[in-house]
Amino acid sequence: MSELDAIDAAIVRELQDDARLANNVLAARVGIAPSTCHGRVRSLFERGVIRGAHAEVDQAAIGRPLQAMISVRLRPHARGELSAFAQMMAELPEVLNVYFLAGADDFLVHVATAGSEELRGFVVNHLSGTKDVAMTETSLIFEHLRGRPAAEPRSVRPAPQA
Fold first, then answer.
1. Which pLDDT belongs to residue 79?
2. Cα dist. 43→7, 105, 123, 150 in Å?
């Protein structure tokens, strides 16, 4: 876990709200010079605190209005294939996210499709029809609301004094 000072924590908080902030705007919001801000953002990427900046796409607007979460349980003989299965899922165009779980199910696969027939085809062709999958359970998503991350990371040290 990377320890953040108060300025890094403020940068993370601002970028979680809007990853498209211009560097000079971000710098002004957290109270530092733009050159310092640029270096700190670069450091947050290098340390793995920030893993990427992504566009949140309305799946319905691009022809994939039906979203679902599919719980997947692999057969006992396939336990050695967990990473390969997750990677295979992540590469499919319908898949938005793959979650590796603890508990009865091994994975939760978040998909977006054009409709119920395409969703059914995905489940049959990529899950139920494979030798390693023991069970699937599909839950349709009616609505998704994005949560607000915690205001402060758990490990924040005071910012250095100028």
1. 81
2. 12, 37, 41, 21
- Neighbouring C-beta atoms of residue 17, cutoff 10 Å: 11
d(CA 98, CA 69): 10
3-33 pLDDT, tens digit each: 899 999 999 999 998 999 999 999 999 999 9
Task: Output the pTM of the full model.
Answer: 0.80
Q: Which domain holds residue 135?
A: 59-141
Give me the percent of the chain exceeding a pLDDT of 70. Answer: 90
Q: Which of 68, 49, 52 is nearest to 10 (CA)?
A: 49
Same domain for 46 and 116? no
Task: Tell me, yes or no, whether 69 and 137 share the same domain.
Answer: yes
159 band by pLDDT with thresholds 50, 70 and 90 = low
Residue 135: name the closest of 63, 47, 46, 70 by CA.
Answer: 70
CB-based contact 86:71 (threshold 8 Å) = no
Closest to 132 (Cα-Cα) out of 83, 89, 71, 73: 73
Please identify which residue in the block is written with the tokens 């069970």: 135
